[in-house]
Amino acid sequence: MTAEKEDLRRQALAWLAALSLQDKKSGDDALFRRFLSLPQTRAAHTILLYCGMGTEPDTLRLLPALFAAGKRICLPRCLPGNQMEARLVQPDSSLICHPYGMLEPGTDCPLVSPEEIDLVLVPGLAFDRSGGRLGRGGGYYDRWLAHFSGVTAALCRDGLLMDAVPRLPHDLGVDLVITETGLYGPSASGTGKSGA
Fold this sequence. Notes:
Layout: H1 2-17, H2 21-37, H3 39-43, E1 46-48, H4 63-68, E2 72-79, E3 83-89, E4 95-97, E5 103-105, E6 111-112, E7 119-121, E8 126-128, E9 133-134, H5 140-145, E10 151-155, E11 161-162, E12 176-178, E13 183-184
Parallel strand pairs: 1-2, 1-7, 7-10, 8-11, 10-12
Antiparallel strand pairs: 2-3, 3-6, 4-5, 8-9, 12-13
């Protein structure tokens, strides 16, 4: 299973490396439009985003629209032992560059418990139609999501939507997988936007 996951990670990273800047931006635009139009996003009061880095969707571009809609926005902060926490950010919050390369809030940003959060945007390299997620292997989100009972969603480029992602018992999937052209996962039915 570990070898299979590593092979899929290599494939996903190679696919992403070949993506042009224009294709990345247009894909981000489509993903963000679909995320912002979701009933689950509109209904959420408090949302945990992540700071996209490298070939990931540039999720910080979502902040102005979400702040304008009156949402409380949290970002993750990494902790020792592959743990993480959610911290509340404001439009003027300063973000710190983590050694892994992503931006994260400082300890001056208020801590937010999982119980206060309605919707989590979960990062991943690739996903499948049932909500299966291929992460980067650190387990940060699997550990944090074990204590979360709200809605989980993910942004996945069409080219990285797989038939099946290998999953171990501790690998948590997401409720909604948003691609440029479809919506998948256990909570996709009934939204009127499910993919073919």
